[in-house]
Amino acid sequence: MNDIDRRTILTTATIGVAALVNGGFSAVAEAQAVGDPVQAMTTRLTVNGRNHSLDLDPRTTLLDALREHLGLTGTKKGCDQGQCGACTVLVEGRRINACLSLAVMHEGDAITTIEGLGTQGDLHPLQRAFIEHDGYQCGYCTPGQIMSAAGLLDEVARGVPSHVTGDLTAAATLSDEEIRERMSGNICRCAAYPNIVAAIRDAAGAPS
Amino acid sequence: MRSFTFERASSPAAAAKAVAERPGAKFIAGGTNLLDLMKLQIETPTHLVDVNRLGLDAIEATPDGGLRIGALVRNTDLAADARVRRDYAILSRALLAGASGQLRNKATTAGNLLQRTRCPYFYETALPCNKRAPGSGCAAIGGLNRNQAVLGASEACIATHPSDMAIAMRALDATVETVSPDGASRAIPVADLHRLPGDTPEIETILAAGELITAVTLPPPAPGVHVYRKVRDRASYAFATVSVAAILTRDGGRISGGRLAFGGLAHKPWRVEAAEREIGRGAEAVADIVLAGARTSEHNAFKLPLVRRTLAVTLTEAAQGTRR
Fold first, then answer.
1. Distance of alpha carbon B203 from alpha carbon B163, whole angstroms
2. A81 at B interface, C-beta within 8 A
3. What is the pLDDT of residues A149-195, one digit of tens each?
4. Which of A171, B29, B84, B291 stands 20 to 30 A from A36 (CA)?
5. Model ipTM?
6. Domain residues for A187?
């Protein structure tokens, strides 16, 4: 069982469900197609270092391109309206909500998802820290939390201030208050917040 | 989301022309507000003109000692710019008080000015809203209107403008530069950019069809203590209930003058220059003038004392030098 990961099981289960409700899915697709001609656009994305060329309906969000077209389901769809942060990815190194961007707006962009941050054998320091500090419960928001934290650490390194930064002209430091403010775009329904803050503090090498 | 066609503009004037020539066309920059509204079919553009690659993303010094901010400068980059942090702290503070880290990385300077209201009835397509469906009525009047406007509203609409950045821009006397479909450019004081709702709340700015914002220019730095104080329902990632952007001059231990712009109160950034002449007499004297003509709804009368208190603590802390 060890060599069957959770995604394999989920994929298998999903195929079963899809077979059962296939008629329903087709009806939805047809209803959307009426009066809605779609011209696909070829979009090139570099995702986790690999080049892809996708023919996409312009409506496809970056999030749906990653999940539905590239099978990178580590990036989660939570609210799909920019409020929860579960879909956070890095575009050209900067964190954004993948749900609030069209894939066609990212022609030629380099995108990093949770799958590209670390591997099972070589975890990113943030991934290790989230495990070490138990920075999750159900885990659904975790990829977004970790990608957001990766973006945050880069912003601090570049001297980007925050709402709670005392002196705007001084170098940014990473107190717990700063971590909480800078992570406010990521919601954790299980409220693992204290451990998330501890994990980010640890990965940043900041004193508690 | 309704289907649309998509093109990348080659120049600002070409973008303006592309939008002006096609009914139902819209610009897209950061897209953080537009796409949210498109998913709900509140916005249903048939054609999108992507302006992200027009190179309007520089922050440059102007000959008179001000700053010219490209329309596409992202909120994070504007807030983090060393000149803005040093000379226009009120702008950094306002930007950092808004949205989340992810959204600030995507949202642009011009898009921030043009973002639409967060009135819950504008978002609820099952209910009337004169802004979303002109002539349908206003469900916020008589509805849950705790966060609606108390100044400059109309019988047709009591929505507020949600931007923090725009409040700071108003206090800074910023100017918006645009290009029109015929290639002509014009400069619009930010004070004149946004309209009050009147009978046509669906028309939110004075921009013509296809007119594209290319930059926002700041005059030379205004000396004084820069404060952006935002009161909201949670400490981060929430829209303002009341906000005050203040640039205050200190004379000894007291505040002698300055500029004040308010957010959360109206359909546009609210500034009353006549009130600023009373700053030396204290918060109550100022608030009496700012709030003259205020009309509250069932649930938002609390905003009037909240403005007074927010102003009082802003002036007191600035006088004492205790507010960062």
1. 17
2. yes
3. 999 999 999 999 999 999 999 988 899 999 999 999 999 999 999 99
4. B29
5. 0.96
6. 125-204
